[in-house]
Structure formats: C-alpha cells, structure tokens
Amino acid sequence: MMLKVLSLLGLSTLALFASDDRDINMYAIVMFFLFIGLTMLLTKWAAGKTKSASDFYTAGGGITGFQNGLAIAGDYLSAASFLGISGMIFLHGFDGMVYAVGWLVGWPLILFLMAEKLRNLGKFNFADITSYRLEQRRIRILAALASLSVITFYLIAQMVGAGKLIEVLFHIPYGWSVAIVGALMIIYVTFGGMLATTWVQIVKAVLLLLGTTLMTILVLNAYDFSFVKLAEEAVTLHSKGEAILRPGPFVSDPIAAISLGLALMLGTAGLPHILMRFFTVGNAKEARKSVVYATGFIGYFYIIVGVIGLGAVAFLYNPENVGVYFDEAGKLIGGNNMAAVHLSEIVGGPIFLGFLAAVSFATIVAVVAGLTLAASNAIAHDLYAIVIRKGDITDAEEMKISRRTVLVIGLVAILLGYIFENQNVAFMVGLAFAIAASTNFPVLILSIYWSKLTTRGAFLGGLVGLVTALTLVTLSKTVWVDIFGFEKEIFPWVHPGLFSITAAFIAIWFFSITDKTARAEEDKSGFEAQKTRAETGIGADGAVSH
Amino acid sequence: MDQKLVERIKNNPKYQELVSKRTSFAVKLAIFMFIVYFGFVLTIAFDKEIFATKIGDVMTAAWPIAVTLLCIIIVMPIIYAVRANGEFEDLTNAIKDDVKDAL
User: Fold this and answer.
1) ipTM confidence score
2) Taking the model in full, what pTM does it have?
3) Hey, which residues 33-52 in chain B have their CB within 8 Å of chain A?
4) Within a 13 Å sphere around the CA of B31, how many CA atoms are in the beta-carbon half?
C-alpha cells in the first residue's frame, strides 16, 4: 500500500518535472528524491515498530535526550526561522535578530518551569497535565480547541510557504507543491507515527545545521573570516546603508515590544507539537538534556543565520548579481524569503543550491509532520478517546482513529494551503504564538503550580485568552485593514500578547477563586498528589520497552 | 498514588529539601532570563540610539549584543541541567529509595 502511494507520488512528480522546460536544477531534484527515499526507508522501519498508541504518539518513550534535542530543533526551526529570518535581515537588517532572540528565549523558561514536570505527569500530550486533577471532559475540550487553533494557523503558514518554495525551486505548479507536501506528511505520520516523525525531524535538523554552517563558512571565507568586513560591505551595498546595523521599525513602542516579547517567549511554552516532544523521552533527566541540546542547536542556528542574512545583502546586491536575482521592478526573484536560497547558488554553485533547496523542503516537511501528529493527538486522543468514549477504548481502536484523523488533517491542510495561496500568511505564525501564549501556557503553568486552580477557572479563563487573542488580532491592522479592507484598525497594536495573556491569567484566577462547586473541592484536593509526582516522578509513566 | 504514600513523600525531609532548593534555583534563573530579555527588548523600544552606538568604523553595538544574548540563552539551560541532573537527581533517587517498599 505504502509503496504504491510512493511510486504514484514519485511518478507524478517526475512527470511534472519533465513537463517543464525552464531552467531546472538537476542536483536539486536528485537530492529531493534522496531525501524522500531516505525518509521513506525510515518510515518503513518505524512502521514495523509502531504497535501501540504509546508508540504512535510518543515513540514508546524510547528516544534519548540528545536525539530529542535534535528532533526539537527539527520541529521548531520552521521555514519562518531559516528563510524568514534570513529574508528579514536581508530586507531590514538587525530587526531580524530581534525575532531570533525572542524565538530562543522561551527555551530556558520551558526547562526551568516545565520540562521535568511535563515528563513526570504526562503520557501523550500536555492536556494530560492540565487535566491531571481537573475534570477530564472540559479541560480536554479546551486543550483540543486551543491546540487545533494554534496548529491550523501554523499549518497554513507552513503549507503556503512550502507551496511557494517548491514552486520556485522545482518549477512545479503551486497546487501540486502543496499536495506533495501534504501527501508526504500523511505517509510519514500514518505509517510511522512519532518514531518516523522524530527521525524525519532529526535528519532535517542535521541537514539544516550542516547546510547553513557550510554556507556561513563560504560567506565568511570571502571576507577573510571577518564579520566586521562583511558588515561593512553589506552597509555599502544596501539601500538603507548603516541603518541595517541598528534597530529599525519593528520594535517601535514599549507596549508593542512587551506584547511581542511575551508572545514569543511564552508562546513557545504553549505550542502543542513542541510540548508533545517531552513525552518521547524516558524520564525527567533525559527531558532536561533534550532542552540543553535543543537550545544549543537552535541558538547556534540563529547566530549563523545572522551571518547568512548579512551575507545575502553583501552578495545579492553585488552589481554582478543584481541583474541575475532581481526582476525589472527591483524585487528579489521569488520574494525576500528566497534570499538564503539565492545566496547558496552564488557561494556554492548549482550543487550547493540543489542541496539547500532540498534542505529547505525537508525543513517544512518535518515541521508539518510534527504539527499533524499533534493535531491527531488532540482529536483522536483528547476529543474522541477521552471526551466521547470516556476513556473506554482499546489501544488498537485508538490507533485506527488516530491514523484516519491524520489522513483527514492532511487533506484539510492541502485544501487550506490551496485556498490561502495569495493571502499574506506571515501573521499566522504570530497568531499561533499569541494563542499558544494566551491559552495553553496560562492553563498549563497554573495547573502545575497553583493549588487553587479549578476546572471552571481553567476552562473559562482559557477560553477568555483564546477569544481575546483572536478578537484583538481580527481588529488589528493585519486583518481589519490589510485583509478586510477597512480604512482604520480598531485595536492599535499588531500583537495582542500583553492584553490577551493578562486577560487569561486574570480570568483563570477570578473564575477559580469564586468557584464554590463540589468539583472545585475535588480539583484543589488533588494538588498534593500531583505535586509530589511532578517533583519526584514517582508513579510517572516510564519508558516502555518492546 | 495513594494518599498514604503522598503523605510519606511530603514528610520526607529530602523531599522538602529537593522542592525548596530546586524551586528557588529555577525561579532565580527564570527571573534572570526575564530581566535580561526584557532589558534587551525595552532598551530597543525606549531608545534605539543606545544599540546604534558605533564600536568600529561602521559596526554598531547592536549585533554583538544580540549574539551575546543568544549565547547567554544557550548557556542558561546548561547551568540548570548540570545541577539538576547531578544534585537534584541524587536527591530524587534517595527519596525513591526511601519509599520503595510502597512502590
């Protein structure tokens, strides 16, 4: 069955490549197929080992801290990180680094406040923790609702990004590009579950780190390995001149700064596909190691992406190259997000371009696979197995439902990617972070640390966070003016974080302390047992060996 | 976990030591991270000129500051994990040992 799907996919892709007579990079195609071939082998191997729901959702808890650290890097470093930040630096300079710092700073916090507690209390996903002592039904519904909102926005951004990227790199029509990404992720996740997803993410992380390191060396090599010389050349060639080495318009007023900062920092700690990765390791010790490695890899990546961004300025604006990579209107061919890809051709020729194109493709596929698995976790585990079937479900049944869910999510993702082709999706990743920070994060952190949290408080407060974040983004310039076409925005800031996160915390606090129901007593009395398990891991779901 | 075991763990001095030491360590590091990060963001928000200070012919302070900050963020988890995977893990194992008859 799998081979059939694969060969069909391969043939149709080949036909598409062949039907186009524009300039095609054969190296890119070869490496693209090598990547698909390798990951298919991994999936086949993983499929043989995926026998229970625990295998499907968490790879049986048998991933090591180092492997998980790499996989987290592979899960977290989306196209927005690589193509997005380098493109942002290419366009605005230093402002791109402000985003890089914000995207990294959530990691130490996850470690200090959450990682080991997540591992000690949970089994499949973060809703295991939030519903540990609270009422399963309402909390799972809230978790699934918030997770699916986060995942949908994140997924649309990735699918559209992937479609555009493949369209430019391989000259495949947009619709087909989106369909290929969707089909691949369906295959990885339905057959190989978390084990295949993890290894696809590890392969991607290694490729991405190798590729970007090599590119950094090639760029710096042209400037005697002096970052200062590179920066001087970039300043000379960029139309904004010295401004690219200074903070620009991104962080304008203090409220916008705090809002964006909070959303990036706390949003990371509320992303369901990231939190899910903590259940793939055997114990709290490995969970801590995961974060150390992940932060190291992600941080290293952001440091060198700065060099790549400035390198793109220095090389692409070089008079020799301007005619090749810019169109007549003076715009970068394929958009600013293609800066790093074009740079690879200048510094490493067609072979390196081919390699980097395949890496960019792998980057998106790995992130999309993680998102899909998290969505299937929310639907099949939280909503179906626990809310609808009240936990009365066999392992085999749950697996079957999960796999079907993955298929449906994959098809929906393809459809959404197709529909949103010409929308500006950059704000969607920001929105995903804002919802994660305003709903998942407050409920999760308070369920771990605040003994007086009740089901009503978590449920209503979480909803307040979700609705506030969605409403404020709708009323802000990005949606109200840019998409709906109204003349003036109602909410003056682009990022809702400060307001929606505060609203969520206040609402959770208020609806908890005023909660006089019998359920509230039960919620509070369960805290002691939860705390001792969270702190020591006694009674935790351990690694299952097969 | 039954209530009796919870009480036993709670009353174990090693458990109390673990919780108080780890919580205070984690909170201190988290607060440090908060201050450093928001110090960075708010400095940019209030006065962009500080980061625009020249440290070379064209090089400004901004880029080196951002890279230093990234390095600090990378080091923070190492500081925590070294102590947690050593001292705190030993305490945890000692607690598990104390109650192993009930497990």
Assistant:
1) 0.95
2) 0.92
3) 33, 37-38, 40-42, 44-46, 48, 51-52
4) 6
